Structures are given as C-alpha cells and as structure tokens.
Amino acid sequence: MGSQEKINSDPRRMLPSVDRLIARVRDSSPDLPEWAVLRAAREALEAVRAEISEGKSRFRGEPTDLARLEGAVAGAAARLAAPHPRPVINATGVVLHTNLGRAPMAPASAAAVARALDGYSNLELDLETGRRGSRMGSLEAKLLVLSGAEAAHVVNNCAAAVLLALNTLALGREVVVSRGELVEIGGSFRVPAIMERAGVRLAEVGTTNRTHLADYEAAIGPETALLLKVHRSNFEQRGFVAEAEIAEIARVAHEHGLPFVEDLGSGTLLDLSSEGLPPDAFAPGRLALGVDVICFSGDKLLGGPQAGILLGRREHIDAMKKNPLARALRVDKLTVAALDATLDLMLDPSRVNEVPTIEGLRADTTALEPRAARLEEIVSRVIASGAIPAPWKVRRESTEAAVGGGSLPEHRLAGRAVVLEGGPANALAEGLRAAPSPVLARVRDDAVWLDVRTLRDADLDRVGDALAFALESSRRGR
C-alpha cells in the first residue's frame, strides 16, 4: 500500500496532457497561433518533468500550479510568435550595439532595400547590352573612389573576408601573426580557429604583450605565404607592451615578396580624426601605410549593412574573386542595395550625416543638449501625471558611452542623458523593455540612464509612452 501511495503521489502524474494544456491556453488566449502553443506546451511540460525528477519543482497539481503553467505556456507561445527582430529604441548611448543589430540603417538605405524587394531588379544584368553583368560593379566603383584602393570586393561579413583572403593567398602555407592578436570575438569565436579553417598554418610570433619587427623577420621562411595584422578591436593592451609599426611590417613583407594583410575589424572610409576617432580606424590610411589587403565590417564604423569589405591591390583581390569560396560568401541583393545607398551618402558631403552611425559619432554635447532638454520635459511630465505619486526624481546629466560593436574599445563618447533615480531601477528598466515599443536603457548607480546620443527626435515621445507603460505595469504589480 505504501508503495502504491508513493506512485500516486508522484507530481508527474498530476501534470495535464499536452492536449489538455493546449485547450486551456486556447481558451484564455485564442489569438495565439496553434504551432506556437503546441511547441510551448511540450517544452513547458518537459521542463516541469525534469525539475520534478531533480527535486527542484513544487508542482503538486493544484489549481494555482495549473494556472501558472498555463500562463507560462501562453507567454512562451507569444514570444515564439512575435516578429523577430522587433524594432527597439536604443537609449544606451552605444552607437554600435551588437545586441541591437549594430549600425542602424540610413533612411536612404532602407528605401533602397525596399526597392530591391519590390519585384525584379538588374542585380546581375547589364541593361545596356542585355547580358549578364556584375552584382559588384557599382559597389566596387564607389569603394575605390572612397578608399583610393586598386580593387575592392564585398562578402557577407568581416570573418568571411579574412577567411577568403587567407584561403586565396596562403592555402597550405604559413601565415605569420603576433600572439597578442589572436583574439576571441563575439559568440566565443576565435580568430585562430577561423584562420585554420582557411587551410593555413599559423606561425605565431612575439609574446602576448610584446611583438617586435625582428620577430616577424625571424619567422619568415620558405613556407611563409603572408604577414597578417589583426586589429585588437574589442580590447586594449597597456603597460609593458610593444608592437611593430604598420609601415615597418609592410616594408619587411615587401622586401621578402610577401603580401601584408590586415584584419581591421572595424574601419571607416571617412577621416573622423577631427571628431576624436583614432587614425587607425581610417581604412584608406592603412592602405597608404603599405597594407596590401585590408578587411573590415560594413555594419560597424562604416554605418552600413552587415558585410565584409576587402580593399587592396588588384592582383590579390582579383585572385579572391576567382576563388570558389567567393560564391559561398557572396552578398545578396538586399545587402548590395543597402551598401550601395550608404556609399552614395558618403560620397556626398552634404548628406553624409544621414548615416546614423556617422551622425552618432560626430554629435557633441552641445548638439545633444536640446534633445536631452526635451526628453527631460517629456519624462518629467509622465512622472507627474501618474495617478499615484511616483518616487522618481528626474535630472539631466553628462555621460560617457562606448562606441560598441567591437570598435575602438578605449574611445568614449561624451554625451547627455536623462536620469531617473529614487525608485527600483532594475524593475523600471525591465518595464521599459516590456513596453509595446521596447526601450533599452542603462542602469547605473541605482538609477536609469536614458542617453540621447542614440535617440532620434522621433523617438522621444515613444520613450515617454514606454515610461508610462512601465510605471503603470509597476503600479498594477503592487
């Protein structure tokens, strides 16, 4: 009898069937799509069974347990069915926020993408001759004008650009690279692993903190195919450190008849040194120092769509275009359209600030102050209009933000923010993210910071709406 009682008291026997759980969720949330409810129900039941087996669940089949389970399934199904990605409002001040899609698209670029989606296009057709044309023709011409390079090519991201360059120029041979530059990038991907997939052997030189020109010279041998420089785009070295000058590495490479390739990671085609950006971000400047092939991302400092830009000597770029990998790594028509429109804006000095990344990098505190004053007014009005007096105090504050996106880790952007303090900061930030137009803010020193550098004027009222939603949700929660 005791054994039978134990079997009957197993909480897993109290779990509803998948069909019963789905029926309950459909009754309460009829608008949720069937596929999402089915998947969410199966996953929720599996998770509860696993928790029961591990002794971590308090599920006993009570009505409240079933209601919580039903709510969890409905919530999970709603998240599954929601469009992805969703538009969000970036109030972090981080111009190139990787989790938020890095570079926001210029309106002209977004319009170009919409045109590319609307019916057919001459992506690979020469309208003059009626024969097959090049999808890269216009892009290459504009990249060459902006960079001064001999040749250009575009692939789907910077890692692909490096892969194509190494596989083309060094397959089966050695690539000389500093140990201090074998970095790990986002998503736990490591540059050495990407290089090895290119079919090359790495010849590591120097130490993690100091690599001299003599280290490169000593490593060059019969199996050496090229010298490689990898920009440390997501961290800086300080203290007892040393690295060889770009021009000197180029000189050594050329004396030995070797190409010199640089993975710049994040590069710009505009000289923004007057705005405080370091000169090593300016891709044409690197070519002028003797780099033969440079690789960088399209959706970082360039301000365009995700892409990998290759610039350099014609013989090397032409060889890459003939590599079968070029087909596997090529960009689609949407990327071509967005990048082409972005480059058009960069070629027109009167319109270059239409690229949101460029505008965001150039904006100083004087330009940001009116936006911050208006946001402070909107936020103060929302706080004051609440049915229940809110604990929040609002003020404007000077702030600093990173560029983001693995770009210029030591460079900080001075800006202006509206700060809310006096209440539960983390809960308010969570409520802002849950709003119909989600707002991403920074939480610092038990306060919520809304940095206006990454807010458009059209975003300010929407931030106010999101704040009203978050405060009302908090009130209902109490």
Structural account:
Residues 1-7 have low confidence and may be disordered. This protein has 18 helices and 15 strands. It starts with a helix and ends with a helix. The protein has helices at 2-8, 18-28, 34-53, 63-81, 107-117, 137-147, 158-170, 191-197, 213-219, 246-255, 283-288, 314-322, 324-328, 333-346, 356-362, 365-384, 425-433, 460-477, and strands spanning 89-90, 125-126, 131-132, 151-155, 174-178, 201-205, 224-230, 260-265, 293-297, 308-312, 393-404, 407-421, 439-440, 442-444, 447-451. The radius of gyration is 27 Å and the shape is globular. A 7-stranded mixed β-sheet has the order 4-10-9-8-7-5-6, sandwiched between helices. A 4-stranded antiparallel β-sheet has the order 11-12-15-14. Strands 1-13 form a two-stranded parallel sheet. The protein folds into 3 domains: 2-81; 90-98 and 361-477, Aspartate Aminotransferase, domain 1, CATH 3.90.1150.110; 107-354, Aspartate Aminotransferase, domain 2. The longest helix is centred in the N-terminal third of the chain and has 20 residues, at 34-53. With 478 residues, it is α/β, with parallel strands linked by helices. Helix 10 (246-255) links the parallel strand 7 and strand 8 (260-265). The protein is 43% helix and 17% strand.
